[in-house]
Write a structure and sequence with these properties.
This protein has about 350 residues and is an alpha/beta fold. The chain has nine helices and 18 strands. Helices cover about 20% and strands about 30% of the residues. Bound molecules: flavin-adenine dinucleotide and FE2/S2 (inorganic) cluster. It comes from Streptomyces lutosisoli.
Length: about 350
């Protein structure tokens, strides 16, 4: 197990107030990372992922940008309690919302805090490639626009390769299908990066597909679960049938979960994820999004095999090494052992 998925103390060097409800935390964190990745913060007994707004190729400091979510536990706590000099606990950067090896243009559609990884990607693409970059940044109103100055500066420095288009809901309503088409223009061969509120991403993705963009060119980072994803909690209800879940005859095996060095074994239940099996065993393993986006539920499969329903967080090497998102992994062999590091 060569990967480090544990938590590390990280000091906050500075805090930048970007907008009334958005702050950037400049971290004293010597972590290597790729543009577009995120780290996961442990605070208030919860785990939340935050993307880097900095670029490893143009910024000497690692920065992550957090927008308050009304009523939200961790984002509000960070805004209200953290000061420069404070130490927070974070994982090392992770995630696969990264640049691909291509010379195709990069077109990004983002809403609200979704600009965070997009700024990182844009800075790296402009600094390390000759690709054209165009960003559509949708926000409620002018006061909500995050990184307005940084985006204007990129446009001034790369007039031939970078374009920023701001969309303000209070002036033009929500982004429409026609606006996505107009933004895309003739660049149907581009890589499209989407990050923002669920309905915005859904509209953008559908508009791009209808416009003829291949689904393989659409790369999405979801900050919140989509409504139609089965949640682990919903599936955690005991399966009907006898105690070993064999009522439909589909499963006949066990899942062993190693948490805090102790092994617990339960019978497999049909359609149950590894995280759900762990909960059924009375355990409280780490998790956050339960949608395959954040990697906080990561564990190592040491025996047998599990297949993930969704994986938006682990790269191919990690999957090959046996890492699994337990909120998405279902056993495909009669016996599976999964080991949590944290
Ligand atoms: C891979 C990844 C990267 C992320 N990067 C960033 C980032 O760079 N900056 C950033 O600000 N956030 C980012 N997020 C979102 C962040 O992890 C939290 O979900 C967000 O801060 C809300 O957490 P909370 O504890 O404040 O709210 P919670 O207490 O978890 O949620 C309160 C309520 O708000 C809803 N909600 C949760 N998140 C959002 C949201 N983003 N927008 C609207 N409603 C929401 C929930 O459904 C819930 O009803 C990222 C998420 C993921 C999975
Ligand atoms: S809890 Fe986020 S990927 Fe599993």
């Amino acid at each position: 197990m060569v990967r480090d998925h544990g938590f590390h103390p990280v000091r906050i060097k500075r805090i930048v107030q970007e907008t009334p409800d958005t702050r950037t935390y400049v971290l004293d964190a010597p972590f290597p990372y790729r543009a577009g990745q995120f780290l996961t913060v442990r605070a208030c007994g919860a785990l939340r992922s935050y993307s880097m707004s900095s670029s490893p190729d143009t910024d000497s400091e690692l920065m992550t940008t957090v927008k308050r979510v009304p009523g939200g536990l961790v984002s509000n706590w960070m805004h209200e309690h953290l000061e420069p000099g404070d130490v927070i606990e974070t994982t090392r950067p992770a995630g696969v919302f990264c640049l691909r090896e291509t010379s195709a243009p990069l077109l990004a559609l983002c809403g609200g805090s979704g600009i965070t990884p997009i700024l990182s990607l844009a800075k790296t693409a402009l600094a390390t490639t000759s690709r054209r970059v165009r960003v559509l940044a949708a926000n409620r109103d002018a006061d909500s626009v995050i990184f307005a100055a940084a985006l204007a500066e990129l446009a001034a420095r790369h007039p031939d390769r970078f374009e920023i288009r701001h969309h303000l809901d209070d002036l033009s309503g929500f982004v429409t299908d026609a606006q996505v088409r107009d933004f895309t223009g003739d660049d149907l061969d581009a890589d499209f990066y989407l990050c923002g509120p669920g309905p915005f991403m859904e509209l953008s993705e559908n508009a791009l597909l209808a416009h003829g963009v291949d689904s393989g060119q659409i790369i999405a980072e979801r900050f919140t679960p989509t409504a139609d994803e089965p949640t682990a909690v919903a599936n955690a209800l005991p399966a009907e049938g006898n105690a070993d879940g064999k009522a439909d005859g589909k499963k006949d095996g066990t899942v062993s979960i190693v948490l805090a060095g102790k092994r617990h074994t339960v019978p497999q239940h049909p359609g149950e994820t590894l995280l759900e099996s762990a909960r059924r065993a009375g355990l409280f393993p780490p998790f956050s999004c339960e949608s395959g986006n954040c990697a906080t539920c990561i564990a190592h499969v040491t025996e047998g095999e599990a297949k993930m329903r969704v994986n938006n967080a682990l790269d191919d090497d990690e999957v090959t090494e046996g890492w699994v998102l337990t909120c998405q992994g279902e056993p495909v062999t009669p016996h599976v052992t999964v080991v949590y590091e944290n």
